[in-house]
Amino acid sequence: MNRRIVLAVALLASAVASASVQAQDRYPSKPITYIVPFGAGGTTDILARLVTQKAGPGLGATFIIENKPGAGGSNGSDLTAKSPPDGYTIQGGTISSHAINASLYSKLPYDPIRNFQPITMIGSMPNVLVVRADSPYRSVQDVVNAAKGKPGTINYASSGTGTSQHLSAVFFEQMTGGKMVHVPYKSSAESINALLSGQGADLVFENLAPALPHIRAGKLRALGVTSEQRASLLPEVPALAESLPGFSIVSWQAIFAPAGVPRPVVDRLSAELIKAIKDPDVRDKLVAQGVEPSGMTPSELAAFQKSEVEKWARVIRTANIKQD
Question: Which CATH architecture has domain 126-242?
Answer without folding.
Answer: 3-Layer(aba) Sandwich (3.40)
